[in-house]
C-alpha cells in the first residue's frame, strides 16, 4: 500500500492495515495518456488458502507488480507460487506473455535486510519477470 500511495500521490505514509483498495490514476507516458486501475491487495494467509478472491483479481488485471519486503523472507518466498498461479490463470487463456514485475521494497532499511538484491534479481530472472528494488519511503 505504501508503494501504491507513493506512486499516486508522491507522499510516503508508513503504516497501513490489511485492506484492499482500487485506485484510478491518469498518467502521461511518452505523450500518451494512460489510465491506471490499481487493485492494491495485501498478502494475507486467507488469500493463500482461498484462491477465489485472488483468482478474481488475476482475471481483472492486465499486468502485475508483486511487492515483497527485503526485510521479510516469507514475503519473498511466496513469490514463485504467486507467479506460477498468475501465469497458469492468464497465459493458459492466450499465447501472450503476462507482464509481471517483482519489486523488493524497503531498500532504505538495508540494516534489516534478509533478502539480498542478487536473490531478488535471480528469482525474477528464473521466473521470467522484471525486477526492481525500491524504497517507498525515499
Structure description:
The strands form 2 sheets. A 3-stranded parallel sheet has the order 3-4-5. The protein is globular and about 45 Å long. The protein has helices at residues 2-9, 45-49, 51-60, 73-77, 79-90, 117-126, and strands at residues 21-29, 32-40, 64-69, 100-105, 130-133. It has a single domain (1-43, 51-133), classed as Rossmann fold. By secondary structure, the chain is an alpha/beta fold.
Helix proportion = 25-40%
Q: Might you state the CATH topology name?
A: Rossmann fold
Proportion of β residues?
A: 15-25%
Largest sheet: 3 strands, parallel
Number of strands: 5
Distance between the termini: 15 Å
Name of the top-level CATH class: Alpha Beta
Total number of distinct structural domains: 1
Mean residue pLDDT: 82
